[in-house]
Amino acid sequence: MSMIELKGIKKDYGKGDSIVHALRGITLSIEEGEAVAIMGTSGCGKSTLLNILGFIDGLSEGEYILDGKDVSKFTKSEMAKYRNRVFGFVVQDFALVSRLRVDENVMLPLEYTKLTKKEKYKMAENILEKVGLSEKKNTYPSNLSGGQKQRVAIARALVNNASILLCDEPTGALDSETTKEVMELFMKISKENKKTLIIVTHDIEVAKYCDRIIRIEDGMIA
Amino acid sequence: MKNIRFCMAALREDVLGFIFKIVQMTISFIIIGFIISGINENYTLSRQINNIMGNQEIYVLKDNNANSYYDEIMSDKSYIPKFQELTEAALAIQDRILVMNNVNTVGIDYKQLDVLEVSDSFFEKYEIKGDFDELAIRNDFTLHRYEGDMDSIVKPAILGSGLKGKYQKGDEITDDAGNQYVIYGFVDDKQYYAAPIQGKEMNPLDDVIITPVYIDVNDVDSMYFFLYGCQFLVDDISELDEFMSINNKERILETYLVSYTKQLEYIGNEYLNSFVLEGILGICLFVFAFAGMICTMFQRIADNAYEYAVNILCGAKLTDIYARIIMEFVMIIMTGVIVTICIFRISLASLGIVSLACLCFLIMCLFAKYKIDFESLVENLRSKG
Ligand SMILES: Nc1ncnc2c1ncn2[C@@H]1O[C@H](COP(=O)(O)OP(=O)(O)OP(=O)(O)O)[C@@H](O)[C@H]1O
Ligand SMILES: [Mg+2]
Fold first, then answer.
1. Who among B2, B309, B383 is closest to A92 (CB)?
2. What is the C-alpha separation between B47 and B99, in angstroms, rounded?
3. Does B321 touch chain A (CB under 8 A)?
4. Which 126-165 residues of chain A touch chain B by CB within 8 A?
5. pLDDT by residue (tens digit) across B290-303?
6. pLDDT of residue B127 exceeding 90
7. Domains in chain A, ordered, with CATH?
8. Mutate which of A99, A110, A161 to test chain B, going by most B C-beta atoms within 10 A?
């Protein structure tokens, strides 16, 4: 059985005349440990798909089976728990909280667990070491370069041992050199720990790292 | 826990604003609390006094004339028989007469005491409890009509509860003016009587000396004060017709009858009028404080939308976000509530403030819910490029 199974997923935004059919029936399955790139023109519905996968957006029609369970039966707090434990998000503009230090940013998902303060710090430190940012843990995001910020975001996505990484243009704000660096880090960590990786990207160089490329056109798989 | 921590972090950025809001909210709560307790007190007093009256009504004579009139009758000997006639008419219905005079004070052993000249029905009507013999009251606290030398009389006296330790039953005491008293007993703690004609309150019987009324029927002054001290407790005003007709026919006193009910209303209205200004002030302050809180809340939501969205990404529930936003205002409101409860203890004012606080909390929750929904929060995460 696949880790993720989507059957005829549709998503509409708005109502009446201003209705937007962002997704028009997506059917696909993704195996555990697979690395998948999602590509397509701007506005074709990539982010929408990723948000639906990660429980930060609902679907209008269709079926979403995650690890054998029907997602439509999940309660809001179960979904929050999945966002916390199962999914790790990485987005283009990093989604870091400027008010918080690097280590506090990384610890954010741990705040929604029952760990002690000590355990949280230890976990954050470990993961920061893995992404090579140990020295920066006490600085604020505004003092970091783009590549460093993205590595903080990756650390945060990984800190709670997420099994599915959802990345929306993770290298969109980075130059090609840094992109390479970040992607190698990404692949290393995810292959080592058998994580499922779903990356939305415009960049064919990024997609090349993945096992499979899914192309979306106008809300449907091409 | 985590939400409290997040909230504290947000507060640290604007400590002064937070303190200002606490002060504003607390003061408005206190003012509103005072108004509630004032109105309640006013209402409770009316009820207490009405209870005392039962189905009856108390009438008192109200003075219509200037001092010159008083000077005139005092110096005119021809008024003595007229006053005697009127005094007799009052004494004829003496079972209807309640408190007499409470306008004098005397000093006894360097302590100032209010003198309360009463009739026996005073104790019964106000249900005054104390350590004294009821029979002795009935016999000796009747109205005393006398002619002659006041100095030779030893008056029976019941002392206020505050004097219990100082004297014994049966002691004889003399006041500064040379009047002599023999102590019949003491009033218990927390006993009250009402005299709305002088202002609306239940007067405590702590520092008083209660004695019967002595009317010198050869002295216009004495009769004058007796008549003006009378409180007629009647089922119907017609019971006073005869008394009033004697007065009007002989043109003795320039006076009219006022009922307690009228007087209570009058004082009550004055009372409420004085609250109007305070009320406006308190409510304005409250509205400003509350509006300020709502504005701050919206501001916080706008400022931190991205952060909230990131938290949702990391596993926060929407309720966590609500809690984080509302926590700050709960702290502000709770401070106000705690201070008001410290001031007003368990009372209607406290209850009113707690309800008001709950209402605020509810409105804040509704506003928060209306201002934040999952979709628009998460929308912040979409790259703006
Ligand atoms: N909240 C929304 N309300 C209305 N329409 C929306 C909303 N979010 C997305 N859309 C529309 O849905 C469609 C798909 O949007 P989506 O963000 O998924 O595209 P995308 O493939 O990620 O594009 P890009 O490459 O530019 O990020 C677009 O036409 C967009 O305008
Ligand atoms: Mg997108």
1. B383
2. 19
3. no
4. 156, 160
5. 998 899 889 888 88
6. no
7. 30-56+75-217 (3.40.50.300)
8. A99
| B151-192 pLDDT, tens digit each | 788 999 999 999 998 999 999 999 998 889 999 999 998 888
Question: Is B4 an 8 Å CB contact of chain A?
Answer: no
Instruction: State whether B382 and A172 contact (CB < 8 Å).
Output: no
- Range with top average pLDDT, A44-48, B122-126, B251-255: A44-48
A-B Cβ pairs (cutoff 8 Å, strict): 61
Contacts of B320 in chain A (CB under 8 A): 112
What ipTM was reported for this prediction? 0.93
Confidence of residue B385 (pLDDT cuts 50, 70, 90): very low
Q: What is the pLDDT of residues A109-118, one digit of tens each?
A: 999 999 999 9
Q: Is the pTM of this model over 0.95?
A: no
B309, B314, B375 ranked by CB distance to A109: nearest? B314
Q: State the pLDDT at residue B198.
A: 66
pLDDT at B125 over 90: no
Question: Which residue owns the Cα nearest ligand 1 atom 30?
Answer: A43
